[in-house]
Amino acid sequence: MKNFVIYTLYFLISFLIFAGMEKDSITNILKKNAEIDSPGAIIFFTWIFILSAIVYLFSEWILKNKDAKKEEIETNYYEPNGNLVQNIQSHDPEFDALQFQKNVGTLVEKLNKAWCENKMGNVRNLVSAGVYNRFKIQLDLMKKQGIKNVMQHWALSSVDLIEVATDEDYQTAHIQIFAYAKDLNLGYDVSKEVIEKLFSEARQTPYTEIFSFVRKKTGKTFKGKSLLEGNCPNCGAPIEGLGESNQCNHCHTIINSGEYDWVLAEITQVEVWNESQSSKNINLSEFKAKNKLAAKQIIEDRASYLFWRYMESLAVGSVEPIKRDCKIDLANNWISEKILYSDIAVGAVDLKEIYFEGDEIFAEVYIQWSQNFNPEESLFTLSLAPSANKNSGLAENSCTNCGAPYPDSDAHACEYCNHPIPKVVNDWLLTTIEDY
Phi and psi (nearest 5°) for 79? Predict the structure, then answer.
């Protein structure tokens, strides 16, 4: 129907063009053809159809080649503001902004490929716990709903360092990504032929996102020791072939902790991106003196991780996916209600308050999110026991022996090396969930 309407419009345009070529009015054209015999009229309108078909096919060729040009565009790495670069170089003199942006471009491509192939484990050791679980659980939830995301003609247009934030512990570099893609959500039973047809009719659409990279302020740039270039940021050994492990085979460093090198800790749509202001006024010194896990970046990434585990628990109607990461009281009183949200998106994860209750530290984190484009707000309260001594920073809790991820179940041993797994992790634990 759409093609018929388009073709009709082209027919009318061609008719007007033909009338102009004849240097005559449309009324006279019609009068003249009304006076001639049928064969003459048929010839006249045949020419009109041929001309309109040529115009239509030519315009389609232009549009298709316009898309093709987008696919082949060269990525533009913008020259960043000198003050932003100086902010980082004041702590890390060897920091190369252009090389960093190129490394980010490579990571974006790897992340996109892992998403399309539903193999997020391939990038687990390059991103934070929050980012990894966001994509992994989103893919699992879509699969439960019988939906898959398919993408073609992805092209990275530009990479731009737009903001740098520094606190007493960490630096955060915000990178704006501009890209194009043909992107469709389809049912699992849709045939390849139908998919190809849909893609042939789809257009490359632009999108912009903010990628936020976090690194300990003491981190330094060393040639040959870059995580984003495929090396252990501590010893420089290649990390290719690690699979889902986040532990270097040579020095056993947790490579995506953020202690040594930049780690992707957040991805935000540019429309809702906003550098958090509320938590900047929170003095964390007293809390960090008790436990180094009381850092803004660690708390917010942990809350993001817990949010997605919470979504997974709702989807399966069981506490099991989050049981290892929450307080015993919350686990024991869990209401096993099955709720499967669709089109889940997180707009903000923001530390609002932190305080002591006895020897424990509590943190309240505001989460702005949406489901099926309906806005939601939640307040997650996390607690940290005095004995908590996680040393993997922004990395996900993993097997202390081999670095593999813990299974999404109540298993008590690592499925890779059979090393014992604790019933509850030694980290920030989810304590309460409230509507905000």
Answer: -70, 115
**CA pair distance 332, 31, nearest whole angstrom:** 87
Phi, psi of 411 (to 5 degrees): -60, 145
Higher pLDDT, 271 or 302: 302
Spatial neighbors of 201 by CB under 8 A, at least 6 apart, are none
Helix (H, G, I), strand (E, B) or coil at 209: strand
Backbone phi and psi for residue 287, each to the nearest 5 degrees, phi listed first? -80, -40
190 token code pair: 């849709």
CA pair distance 328, 431, nearest whole angstrom: 9
- Write out the two tokens for 336: 């096993």
For 16-30, 139-153, 417-431, which range has the lowest pLDDT when averaged over its residues? 16-30
Alpha carbon distance 54, 141 (integer Å): 47
Q: Please, what's the largest Cα pairwise distance for the chain?
A: 101
Helix (H) or strand (E) holding 202: none
Rounded CA-CA distance 137/145 in Å is 12
Q: Which phi and psi (to 5°) does residue 131 adopt?
A: -65, -45
pLDDT tens-digit series, residues 353-381: 999 999 999 999 999 999 988 999 999 99
Q: Can you tell me the mean pLDDT for 153-180? A: 93
Per DSSP bridges, beta strands 360-371 and 147-166 are unpaired
Enumerate residues 6+ apart whose C-beta is below 8 A from 387. 426
The residue type of 371 is Q
Q: Please give the sequence-ordered ranges of beta strands (E in DSSP) within 217-373, or none if there are none.
A: 263-269, 345-357, 360-371
What is the number of other CB atoms lying within 10 angstroms of the CB of residue 265? 25
Query: What residues contact residue 382 under an 8 Å CB cut-off, 6+ apart?
Result: 299, 302, 303, 306, 362, 363, 364, 365, 428, 429, 430, 431
Tokens of 268: 């935000």
3-class secondary structure, 100: helix
Rounded to whole angstroms, the Cα distance separating 160 from 171 reads 17
Provide the 8-state DSSP code for 227: G
Count CB neighbours of 186 within 10 A: 14
**Distances in whole angstroms, Cα of residue 300 to Cα of each of 70, 344, 411:** 36, 18, 27
